[in-house]
Amino acid sequence: MKNAPDASGKGTISLAGGVAMGTGVMIGAGIFALTGQIAELAGPLFPLSFVLGALVTSLAAYSYIKMSNAWPSSGGIAMILQKAYGPGVVAASASLLMALSMVINESLVARTFATYALRPFGLEENSLLLSALALGLIVFAYIVNKAGNRSVSGFSLVMSAIKIGGIALFALAAIAASGFFSGAFAQQVSQTNGGAFLASVAFSILAFKGFTTITNSGGEIVDPHRNVGRTIMISIAICVVTYLLVAVAVGSNLTIDQIVEARDYSLAAAARPALGELGFWFTIVIAIAATTSGVIASVFAVSRMLTMLTEMKMIPHSHFGMKGGIRSHMLVYTVVIAGTLAVLFDLSRIASLGAFFYLVMDILVHWGVYRHLREEIGARTSVLLAAIAADGVILVAFAGVKLESDSVIVGIAAVSIVAVFGLETLFLQRKPSPNGIPQRDARVDGSSKSHESGADQQ
């Protein structure tokens, strides 16, 4: 699987390669860390949270698929936002929020790797070792990415097949050993709070958001008008089946209290009573393999997106004396930010921050397509409005629950989002336009063609 069009300009990522890329990014922390976080909020109904998350993600994917079908491009989300809002503050800020949510995902997966690696030694609560191992994995991902695109794609393809097969094998064996009506599923469903259940879907959506990696590579997929949408939906379908299998396996072997107690390593905790020591170690190995490949793929995707945003003059850039091109600089920035987050925040806060950033960005994408592009790309108004409503309800429910349990992370998320928009406003106001005059935010007049030309100038 190559990562650029061939000499003839045709895409070089096959349908199967695109699916492997999408599922490779999605299946990582979504299973190994977020299962416990989701169960803590949703109670015995937590497998249904994954189903609702898949439905909301499928609604969200509609905008990305319609845009990619109309304009297959490796610009991905930044391209969508520029065509919707013009090359101004909204497009730049929302694109940066997406990039930051991807960096946050790297930190989440790296912390998950460290938690599972330390679990056999009973050291998963040691914050110093957790931070050190997470940072070590991020540095390793940098080294692999620095080695070149072929190293990344080859490694990711192999690891995707191993981890999906391994996770499915674990889940089926655990379900066969314990059945469907024990553990959490023997508890009363009435214990579940409706608002908390809706809030849990924010984490479920985070487990599926890796499909945007496919959008960002739309121009490189073979026959993109036909295959981008198919790749996204197949990837989501594979992931929801995998997530459901794991959720049922965990829920049938552990009570909700046990899942919450072991929320950062719930699969390993469920493996021991169901499958014994062999199952426990099998789960540990699969978790380490899955999270390692997930971080490597994520570092590749983020550095690529940040490079694109820099080349489009949507974010500032400084080489700080480093040699090499923009891509090599962005690799360094990516691992520095991800490493800092992995050291400073625990899994729950990292996941919460990523959910806030992603949901805000997603709403802006759908609103932009609905307001300015729906007629041009033939998108259905009802689907776009349903996607906005679903994201909005879940964002409000998630913020409400977090205000009660961890108001600090809500404040950090709010301040960070405001800072992104504020700093982008300052940067774009000072950025010279082609005629030498500082560029102001492009005002959208409802005609996509009017600011489409502005985006092309970038």
Automatic annotation (TrEMBL):
<dbReference type="InterPro" id="IPR002293">
    <property type="entry name" value="AA/rel_permease1"/>
</dbReference>
<feature type="transmembrane region" description="Helical">
    <location>
        <begin position="382"/>
        <end position="401"/>
    </location>
</feature>
<feature type="transmembrane region" description="Helical">
    <location>
        <begin position="324"/>
        <end position="344"/>
    </location>
</feature>
<feature type="transmembrane region" description="Helical">
    <location>
        <begin position="280"/>
        <end position="303"/>
    </location>
</feature>
<feature type="transmembrane region" description="Helical">
    <location>
        <begin position="45"/>
        <end position="65"/>
    </location>
</feature>
<dbReference type="InterPro" id="IPR050367">
    <property type="entry name" value="APC_superfamily"/>
</dbReference>
<keyword id="KW-1133">Transmembrane helix</keyword>
<dbReference type="Pfam" id="PF13520">
    <property type="entry name" value="AA_permease_2"/>
</dbReference>
<keyword id="KW-0812">Transmembrane</keyword>
<feature type="transmembrane region" description="Helical">
    <location>
        <begin position="157"/>
        <end position="181"/>
    </location>
</feature>
<feature type="compositionally biased region" description="Basic and acidic residues">
    <location>
        <begin position="440"/>
        <end position="458"/>
    </location>
</feature>
<feature type="transmembrane region" description="Helical">
    <location>
        <begin position="128"/>
        <end position="145"/>
    </location>
</feature>
<feature type="transmembrane region" description="Helical">
    <location>
        <begin position="350"/>
        <end position="370"/>
    </location>
</feature>
<protein>
    <submittedName>
        <fullName>APC family permease</fullName>
    </submittedName>
</protein>
<feature type="transmembrane region" description="Helical">
    <location>
        <begin position="193"/>
        <end position="211"/>
    </location>
</feature>
<feature type="transmembrane region" description="Helical">
    <location>
        <begin position="12"/>
        <end position="33"/>
    </location>
</feature>
<keyword id="KW-0472">Membrane</keyword>
<feature type="region of interest" description="Disordered">
    <location>
        <begin position="434"/>
        <end position="458"/>
    </location>
</feature>
<keyword id="KW-1003">Cell membrane</keyword>
<feature type="transmembrane region" description="Helical">
    <location>
        <begin position="407"/>
        <end position="428"/>
    </location>
</feature>
<feature type="transmembrane region" description="Helical">
    <location>
        <begin position="85"/>
        <end position="104"/>
    </location>
</feature>
<feature type="transmembrane region" description="Helical">
    <location>
        <begin position="232"/>
        <end position="256"/>
    </location>
</feature>
